[in-house]
Write a structure and sequence with these properties.
18% strand, alpha+beta, 7 strands, four-stranded antiparallel sheet, 276 residues, three-stranded antiparallel sheet
Protein backbone atom coordinates (compact mmCIF):
# COMPACT_ATOMS: atom_id res chain seq x y z
CA UNK A 1 0.00 0.00 0.00
CA UNK A 2 2.78 2.39 0.97
CA UNK A 3 4.71 1.54 -2.20
CA UNK A 4 1.65 2.42 -4.31
CA UNK A 5 1.23 5.76 -2.58
CA UNK A 6 4.91 6.57 -2.97
CA UNK A 7 4.82 5.62 -6.64
CA UNK A 8 1.76 7.79 -7.25
CA UNK A 9 3.37 10.66 -5.41
CA UNK A 10 6.54 10.38 -7.49
CA UNK A 11 4.55 10.32 -10.72
CA UNK A 12 2.57 13.35 -9.58
CA UNK A 13 5.77 15.24 -8.75
CA UNK A 14 7.35 14.33 -12.09
CA UNK A 15 4.26 15.33 -14.03
CA UNK A 16 4.02 18.59 -12.10
CA UNK A 17 7.71 19.28 -12.68
CA UNK A 18 7.33 18.56 -16.39
CA UNK A 19 4.27 20.80 -16.58
CA UNK A 20 6.11 23.54 -14.71
CA UNK A 21 9.09 23.22 -17.06
CA UNK A 22 6.81 23.42 -20.10
CA UNK A 23 5.06 26.48 -18.66
CA UNK A 24 8.30 28.23 -17.78
CA UNK A 25 10.03 27.31 -21.07
CA UNK A 26 7.10 28.56 -23.10
CA UNK A 27 6.83 31.79 -21.11
CA UNK A 28 10.41 32.89 -20.43
CA UNK A 29 11.27 32.75 -24.16
CA UNK A 30 8.55 35.31 -24.88
CA UNK A 31 9.71 38.11 -22.60
CA UNK A 32 10.55 41.51 -24.15
CA UNK A 33 12.20 44.63 -22.76
CA UNK A 34 10.13 47.61 -21.49
CA UNK A 35 9.10 49.96 -24.29
CA UNK A 36 9.45 47.22 -26.88
CA UNK A 37 7.22 45.10 -29.08
CA UNK A 38 8.14 41.51 -29.77
CA UNK A 39 7.39 39.60 -32.96
CA UNK A 40 7.63 35.82 -32.60
CA UNK A 41 9.17 34.03 -35.56
CA UNK A 42 9.42 30.24 -35.57
CA UNK A 43 11.00 27.82 -38.01
CA UNK A 44 7.94 25.58 -37.85
CA UNK A 45 5.16 28.18 -38.28
CA UNK A 46 6.73 31.41 -39.54
CA UNK A 47 5.58 34.76 -38.11
CA UNK A 48 3.13 34.60 -35.22
CA UNK A 49 0.16 36.99 -35.57
CA UNK A 50 -0.05 38.03 -31.90
CA UNK A 51 2.39 40.74 -30.85
CA UNK A 52 4.33 40.24 -27.60
CA UNK A 53 4.36 43.13 -25.12
CA UNK A 54 6.20 43.68 -21.87
CA UNK A 55 4.04 42.97 -18.80
CA UNK A 56 1.54 40.82 -20.70
CA UNK A 57 1.40 37.06 -20.21
CA UNK A 58 2.38 35.13 -23.33
CA UNK A 59 2.90 31.42 -23.84
CA UNK A 60 3.53 29.50 -27.04
CA UNK A 61 4.22 25.80 -27.49
CA UNK A 62 6.63 26.55 -30.35
CA UNK A 63 9.13 27.81 -27.78
CA UNK A 64 9.44 24.29 -26.34
CA UNK A 65 11.41 23.16 -29.38
CA UNK A 66 15.07 24.16 -28.89
CA UNK A 67 16.26 26.68 -31.48
CA UNK A 68 12.83 26.86 -33.09
CA UNK A 69 11.81 30.42 -32.18
CA UNK A 70 13.17 33.93 -32.16
CA UNK A 71 11.58 37.06 -30.70
CA UNK A 72 12.50 40.17 -32.70
CA UNK A 73 12.16 43.32 -30.61
CA UNK A 74 11.11 46.70 -31.97
CA UNK A 75 10.76 50.06 -30.25
CA UNK A 76 7.23 51.27 -29.46
CA UNK A 77 8.21 54.90 -30.01
CA UNK A 78 6.85 56.90 -32.93
CA UNK A 79 9.21 58.00 -35.69
CA UNK A 80 9.86 61.71 -36.20
CA UNK A 81 11.67 62.19 -39.51
CA UNK A 82 12.90 65.49 -40.97
CA UNK A 83 13.02 65.62 -44.77
CA UNK A 84 14.28 68.21 -47.25
CA UNK A 85 13.17 68.20 -50.88
CA UNK A 86 15.07 70.40 -53.34
CA UNK A 87 14.49 69.81 -57.05
CA UNK A 88 13.97 71.63 -60.34
CA UNK A 89 11.05 71.49 -62.73
CA UNK A 90 11.77 69.48 -65.92
CA UNK A 91 14.19 71.32 -68.26
CA UNK A 92 14.13 74.27 -65.84
CA UNK A 93 17.52 75.62 -66.91
CA UNK A 94 16.61 75.65 -70.61
CA UNK A 95 13.23 77.32 -70.04
CA UNK A 96 14.77 79.85 -67.68
CA UNK A 97 17.26 80.93 -70.36
CA UNK A 98 14.37 81.91 -72.64
CA UNK A 99 13.06 84.55 -70.23
CA UNK A 100 14.66 87.84 -69.29
CA UNK A 101 16.14 87.69 -65.83
CA UNK A 102 16.53 83.89 -65.89
CA UNK A 103 13.83 83.08 -63.30
CA UNK A 104 14.48 80.27 -60.83
CA UNK A 105 12.29 77.21 -61.49
CA UNK A 106 13.47 75.16 -58.51
CA UNK A 107 11.34 74.19 -55.52
CA UNK A 108 12.39 73.67 -51.92
CA UNK A 109 10.56 72.19 -48.91
CA UNK A 110 11.40 71.15 -45.36
CA UNK A 111 9.13 68.71 -43.51
CA UNK A 112 8.76 67.13 -40.09
CA UNK A 113 6.91 63.82 -40.50
CA UNK A 114 5.63 61.80 -37.54
CA UNK A 115 4.88 58.13 -38.27
CA UNK A 116 3.80 55.22 -36.12
CA UNK A 117 3.89 51.49 -36.75
CA UNK A 118 1.08 49.69 -34.92
CA UNK A 119 1.45 46.07 -33.68
CA UNK A 120 -0.58 44.64 -36.58
CA UNK A 121 1.39 46.74 -39.11
CA UNK A 122 4.65 45.58 -37.55
CA UNK A 123 3.66 41.92 -37.83
CA UNK A 124 2.69 42.49 -41.48
CA UNK A 125 6.05 44.12 -42.28
CA UNK A 126 7.96 41.18 -40.78
CA UNK A 127 5.72 38.62 -42.46
CA UNK A 128 6.16 40.28 -45.88
CA UNK A 129 9.94 40.24 -45.43
CA UNK A 130 10.28 44.03 -45.55
CA UNK A 131 11.99 44.28 -42.15
CA UNK A 132 13.73 41.80 -39.89
CA UNK A 133 15.13 44.04 -37.14
CA UNK A 134 15.02 47.58 -35.76
CA UNK A 135 17.69 48.92 -38.13
CA UNK A 136 15.80 47.71 -41.19
CA UNK A 137 12.60 49.23 -39.81
CA UNK A 138 14.36 52.58 -39.35
CA UNK A 139 15.66 52.45 -42.93
CA UNK A 140 12.23 51.49 -44.25
CA UNK A 141 10.54 54.37 -42.40
CA UNK A 142 13.18 56.79 -43.67
CA UNK A 143 12.63 55.71 -47.28
CA UNK A 144 8.83 55.93 -46.98
CA UNK A 145 9.13 59.39 -45.42
CA UNK A 146 11.18 60.52 -48.42
CA UNK A 147 8.43 59.35 -50.78
CA UNK A 148 5.72 61.05 -48.72
CA UNK A 149 7.67 64.34 -48.75
CA UNK A 150 8.21 64.11 -52.53
CA UNK A 151 4.52 63.35 -53.20
CA UNK A 152 3.50 66.37 -51.14
CA UNK A 153 6.05 68.65 -52.83
CA UNK A 154 4.86 67.77 -56.33
CA UNK A 155 1.24 68.28 -55.28
CA UNK A 156 1.98 71.72 -53.80
CA UNK A 157 3.90 72.84 -56.89
CA UNK A 158 1.26 71.59 -59.34
CA UNK A 159 -1.60 73.19 -57.41
CA UNK A 160 0.14 76.53 -56.81
CA UNK A 161 -0.44 78.01 -60.29
CA UNK A 162 -2.03 81.45 -59.96
CA UNK A 163 -1.99 81.30 -56.13
CA UNK A 164 0.03 83.02 -53.45
CA UNK A 165 0.17 80.83 -50.34
CA UNK A 166 2.33 81.78 -47.38
CA UNK A 167 1.73 78.71 -45.24
CA UNK A 168 0.84 75.12 -46.09
CA UNK A 169 -1.17 72.77 -43.87
CA UNK A 170 0.64 69.45 -44.15
CA UNK A 171 -2.13 67.43 -42.50
CA UNK A 172 -4.73 68.91 -44.86
CA UNK A 173 -2.59 67.99 -47.87
CA UNK A 174 -2.29 64.44 -46.52
CA UNK A 175 -6.09 64.25 -46.43
CA UNK A 176 -6.53 65.76 -49.90
CA UNK A 177 -4.04 63.36 -51.46
CA UNK A 178 -5.28 60.38 -49.41
CA UNK A 179 -1.62 59.52 -48.89
CA UNK A 180 -2.39 57.23 -45.98
CA UNK A 181 -4.05 54.80 -48.42
CA UNK A 182 -0.72 54.42 -50.21
CA UNK A 183 1.16 53.49 -47.02
CA UNK A 184 -0.88 50.79 -45.22
CA UNK A 185 2.18 49.47 -43.33
CA UNK A 186 2.37 52.62 -41.18
CA UNK A 187 0.20 55.34 -39.71
CA UNK A 188 0.89 58.99 -40.61
CA UNK A 189 0.30 60.97 -37.43
CA UNK A 190 1.23 64.44 -38.62
CA UNK A 191 3.17 66.36 -41.27
CA UNK A 192 4.49 69.89 -40.74
CA UNK A 193 5.71 72.03 -43.64
CA UNK A 194 8.51 74.03 -42.00
CA UNK A 195 9.85 75.89 -45.07
CA UNK A 196 8.67 76.23 -48.65
CA UNK A 197 9.82 77.82 -51.89
CA UNK A 198 7.57 77.42 -54.92
CA UNK A 199 8.52 78.58 -58.45
CA UNK A 200 6.29 80.67 -60.73
CA UNK A 201 4.45 77.81 -62.42
CA UNK A 202 2.57 80.08 -64.85
CA UNK A 203 5.81 81.66 -66.08
CA UNK A 204 7.31 78.19 -66.41
CA UNK A 205 4.31 77.11 -68.50
CA UNK A 206 4.74 80.12 -70.77
CA UNK A 207 8.43 79.36 -71.28
CA UNK A 208 7.58 75.74 -72.00
CA UNK A 209 5.04 76.72 -74.69
CA UNK A 210 7.57 79.09 -76.26
CA UNK A 211 10.14 76.31 -76.36
CA UNK A 212 7.65 73.89 -77.89
CA UNK A 213 6.81 76.40 -80.67
CA UNK A 214 10.50 77.00 -81.31
CA UNK A 215 11.16 73.26 -81.45
CA UNK A 216 8.27 72.75 -83.85
CA UNK A 217 9.71 75.45 -86.13
CA UNK A 218 13.17 73.89 -85.99
CA UNK A 219 11.71 70.47 -86.81
CA UNK A 220 9.86 71.98 -89.78
CA UNK A 221 13.03 73.62 -91.12
CA UNK A 222 15.04 70.44 -90.62
CA UNK A 223 12.42 68.47 -92.52
CA UNK A 224 12.57 70.93 -95.42
CA UNK A 225 16.38 70.82 -95.45
CA UNK A 226 16.34 67.02 -95.39
CA UNK A 227 13.93 66.97 -98.31
CA UNK A 228 16.11 69.32 -100.38
CA UNK A 229 19.20 67.29 -99.52
CA UNK A 230 17.47 64.11 -100.61
CA UNK A 231 16.42 65.68 -103.95
CA UNK A 232 19.95 66.94 -104.58
CA UNK A 233 21.33 63.52 -103.73
CA UNK A 234 19.02 61.92 -106.30
CA UNK A 235 20.13 64.45 -108.96
CA UNK A 236 23.81 63.85 -108.18
CA UNK A 237 23.31 60.09 -108.26
CA UNK A 238 21.69 60.31 -111.69
CA UNK A 239 24.60 62.45 -112.96
CA UNK A 240 27.13 59.88 -111.76
CA UNK A 241 25.22 57.09 -113.45
CA UNK A 242 25.20 59.08 -116.72
CA UNK A 243 28.96 59.59 -116.51
CA UNK A 244 29.43 55.88 -115.94
CA UNK A 245 27.34 55.15 -119.04
CA UNK A 246 29.39 57.64 -121.10
CA UNK A 247 32.59 55.97 -119.93
CA UNK A 248 31.24 52.58 -120.97
CA UNK A 249 30.26 53.90 -124.44
CA UNK A 250 33.74 55.40 -124.93
CA UNK A 251 35.35 52.11 -124.00
CA UNK A 252 33.18 50.20 -126.43
CA UNK A 253 33.68 52.82 -129.22
CA UNK A 254 37.35 54.00 -129.24
CA UNK A 255 36.75 56.05 -132.43
CA UNK A 256 34.69 58.51 -130.43
CA UNK A 257 37.84 59.63 -128.61
CA UNK A 258 39.13 61.16 -131.89
CA UNK A 259 35.88 63.09 -132.38
CA UNK A 260 36.23 64.59 -128.90
CA UNK A 261 39.58 66.14 -129.93
CA UNK A 262 38.12 68.25 -132.79
CA UNK A 263 35.66 71.10 -133.02
CA UNK A 264 32.60 68.78 -132.90
CA UNK A 265 33.44 67.59 -129.38
CA UNK A 266 30.67 69.63 -127.85
CA UNK A 267 28.08 67.99 -130.12
CA UNK A 268 29.41 64.51 -129.27
CA UNK A 269 29.29 65.18 -125.54
CA UNK A 270 25.77 66.48 -125.87
CA UNK A 271 24.76 63.32 -127.71
CA UNK A 272 26.40 61.14 -125.11
CA UNK A 273 24.78 63.07 -122.31
CA UNK A 274 21.38 62.45 -123.89
CA UNK A 275 22.23 58.82 -124.24
CA UNK A 276 19.96 56.61 -122.09
Amino acid sequence: MKKGVIKASVITVLVSAAALYIFIAGTVSLKVDPGKYGVLVSKTSGVHEKIIQNGEFSWNWRCLIPGNTEVIQFSKESFCVSKTIEKSLPSAEIYSSLIKGNPDFTYYFEYDIVLEVTPSQLVALVKEGKVSDQQQLNEYINKQSEEIALDMSLYIVESSSGKIIFKYDGNQIIEELKIQDSYPEMTIRSVTVKKSQVPDVELYGLAKKTMEKFQALVDERLEEAAKLHAEQFIVDERAVKKLEKIADVLKQNPELNQLLSNESAAEVLKALNDFQ
